[in-house]
Specification:
Blueprint: H1 15-42, H2 44-47, E1 50-52, E2 55-56, H3 57-92
Antiparallel strand pairs: 1-2
Length: 93
């Protein structure tokens, strides 16, 4: 049984754009997470404030960060796939 790659990999013509998009999304997420940490360190009383359906800010913000990470990952993947397809078509033309 041979263990070979399932697909042949070629040059990634969209790598610079994908890297830039990844860094932008990382900075956005890091700023939001940093704000959560700062609230937790300096304004702990705010985390106990009820904000939605009886849940406090800590739970809503924390779960929001988790959901945001999944959504950002999905959109990153979708956008990068579109970039790769577009750039590969341009190179083949």
């Amino acid at each position: 049984m041979l263990h070979e790659p399932a697909v042949t990999l070629g040059a990634d013509h969209a790598s610079k754009k994908k890297s830039r998009l990844g860094m932008i999304l990382f900075v956005i997420y890091a700023l939001l997470y940093g704000a959560f940490v700062i609230i937790g360190i300096s304004h702990t009383h705010l985390l106990g404030t009820k904000v939605f359906a009886g849940l406090n800010l800590a739970v809503v913000y924390g779960m929001g960060l988790i959901v945001l990470a999944a959504v950002m990952g999905y959109f990153y993947s979708m956008i990068c796939t579109n970039m790769e397809n577009k750039m590969n078509k341009e190179v083949q033309s």
